[in-house]
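Problem: given the chain below (92 residues), write out its structure.
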Amino acid sequence: MKRYELIENLTEVYFGQDYDYFGETGAEIMAEYRKACTPAELEALRAEIVDFMRSHPDLETDFPRRFERPAQPEDFGSTIREFLESVLAALK
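Solution.
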């Protein structure tokens, strides 16, 4: 598995151009994501996000260099940090 593959899948598929297929809010989208994943996959995504955030202090610059800019429903904030923190909260 390549590094940050789960973040890439989340941002391209679930929060990508057709995000509204999964829901209108971040909470709805993450509920669909959780249904599709095993507990181990959810924990692996959590670990990837924590690792990425620790390794990349300038998230607003570094994240778009690596990943597609995700659709960001209002309930998931307006910055990349807020988006990632919202995803982490939804994984609990």
